[in-house]
Amino acid sequence: MKAAIVKEKGTNPVLGQFDSPVATDGLVVVNVSVAALSRVSKFRSMGLHYSSDVYFPVVAGMDGVGALEDGSRVYFAMSAAPYGSLAEQTMVNEKLTVRLPDGIDDVTAAAIANPAMSSWAALVFRAGFKSGQTVLINGATGASGSLAVQIAKGLGAKKIIVTGRNESKLHALEADEVIAFDMTADNGQNLFETALMPVIAEGVDVILDYLWGDSALAIMSALAKTNTDRATRFVSIGTSSGQESIPLPSSILRSSAIELVGSGGKSVSKADMLTAAKGVFEMAAEGKITIATEEFALEDIEKAWDAPLMPRPVVKVQ
């Protein structure tokens, strides 16, 4: 079968032929229609992620959309090694599949699953979000952050505050409050903290942070300096700022009602992630969340692999 194959660790996939999978106990064959590319999928495929397989060659791709033997359309995740999603067929644990509602097409489902379900899981399972609460999204202009804005609206957020580096993109999200920052400017962190204070003083229930780094520290510092006993759950989802570590004084946590948690691979169960995916697909089928995509043929895998992640690159397998 045709497949995008990673032949050695750290290398990009190339088009080639790979043996077709054969179903075994607990594993089903999926006829793949489309697969989207995400940062985690690419790094995992190349053997550069902590969850990567150690043996090569492997078929690239972590998740996708296709049809089971009975014709049911499904989203599938974490296909069984050495089979990935960028091939005509893959093999996956049937428990890691989600039936797709009629109102969502294959391309949208494949593209929206990874960035949206991580935001849904962080908001619902890690933050314990409830309708009517106020949400601040730091790093809202990225693929996951912009979807988090839509998801929070769809789940009934009373107020949404967005922060990030690109002011024009922030305003395009149509949030209730927009606060842009420039951490490279003189005193940029303090300026951001000062701008946050009056907004935070009105109360924030949940913070979804995709950046970490200096901006995250500014947010927590502003929370600690605001005279409120309202609990705020700060959920760390990613480190898009490039800063893995920050100098977080314990006094910030001691002098505030911040609850600091993470959301990722081992902090959210596979069952909850699939529940999140189901919720995402249903919301997308109703037209409440959308994502921009760019389509590629499997034969153009090298071009797709190098494409920006926004709009989301989607590879049509067949």
List keywords for this structure.
single chain, 318 residues, alpha/beta, Quinone Oxidoreductase, Chain A, domain 1, Rossmann fold, 6-stranded parallel beta sheet, 9 helices, 16 strands, 25% strand
Structure description:
The strands form three sheets. Strands 3, 5, 6, 7, 8, 15 and 16 form a seven-stranded mixed beta sheet that branches. Strands 11-10-9-12-13-14 form a six-stranded parallel beta sheet, sandwiched between helices. It is built from nine helices and 16 strands. It is α/β, with parallel strands linked by helices and 318 residues long. The N and C termini lie close together (11 Å).
Q: CATH class of the largest domain, please?
A: Alpha Beta
The main β sheet shows up as: 7 strands, mixed
Supply the helix-strand structural class.
Answer: alpha/beta
Shape: elongated
Instruction: Spell out the CATH superfamily of the largest domain.
Output: Medium-chain alcohol dehydrogenases, catalytic domain
Write down the domain tally.
2
Helix content class: 25-40%
Strand content: 15-25%
Radius of gyration: 20 Å
Low-confidence stretches: none
Q: What is the fold named in CATH at topology level of the largest domain?
A: Quinone Oxidoreductase, Chain A, domain 1
**Termini separation:** 11 Å
**Count of beta strands:** 16
Order of helices and strands: EEEHEEEEEHEHEHEHEHEHEHEHE
CATH-level-2 architecture of the largest domain: Alpha-Beta Complex
How many helices? The count is 9
